[in-house]
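Ticket opened by: R.M.
Priority: normal
Category: complex prediction / small molecule

The reporter submitted a protein together with iron/sulfur cluster and asked that the result be attached to this ticket for the collaborator who will pick it up next week. Submitted input follows.
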Amino acid sequence: MIIFKQEKPTLAIHKFTSCDGCQLALLNLGPDLLELAKLVDIKHFAEAGIVASEESVDIALIEGSISTRSEQQRIQRIRQTSKYVIALGACATSGGIQALRNISNAEAWLASLYPDTSVLDSLTTSTPIEESVRVDFTLRGCPVSCQQLIDFLLQLTQKIKPKPIDHSVCQDCKRNQTSCVMVTKQIPCMGPVTQAGCNALCPRINRGCFGCYGPTKQANTVALAKQFKNLGMSDKDIKNSFLHINSHSSAFSTAANSINEDDSSHE
Ligand code: SF4
Ligand code: SF4
Ligand code: SF4
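Result attached by the on-call engineer:
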């Protein structure tokens, strides 16, 4: 059951390591954002010029991953002072593109740029919010979809528990009656293994999905890797398809790790 401390729920948007794109998705709501402001009392949204980061709130939207020691401490404080914590976007839900450092030599990268790395706050990992604190809801995507975000907040403010999405992008393609770009144009598409939420945006504009919503439940990455191989992709490119924005997600990292770049087992 959804319960708020205030009759008009209070809301904060906090930024961690990110590109700000998910906050911009919220700003881009335009007139809908003004409608939203009637439903919630926005206490902290630095991107929109409202700053009160220490306020205790009902709903805390978190953009970004944990990649510094100070962020590790800040997320603990936010968890303690927020009724519902919502991880927003690929950075917050899977570590984002900056999680590529998790499978690289991050210390060597830093040492190649800075003469004294001891002064840096940076961690050698970038991790999703749920690896640091309990998360109540997640909204995926890079960036999150404006429509999905507004629908989610409308449900929450009406005290309706938002349902998680667990179908693939392919299913939305079928519902939209979009021609499959992989079948009709031989364009590699991550849609079969990617969670829906964007209303199959990329195939609708004749582009393959690159998996920005992360893996769907029961993603058959082995079958998709075989299909990519049939389309003429190299093992390296297939591996990189899984190691893109959601490289820290278990299903995609397992898929990438199972591909040996000299391996012909996908042929
Ligand atoms: S999920 Fe994508 S758009 Fe959102 S903050 Fe991270 S990099 Fe930017
Ligand atoms: S275009 Fe991609 S997402 Fe759409 S049906 Fe084909 S494989 Fe699935
Ligand atoms: S189609 Fe794929 S890459 Fe494009 S927005 Fe949707 S999930 Fe992201």
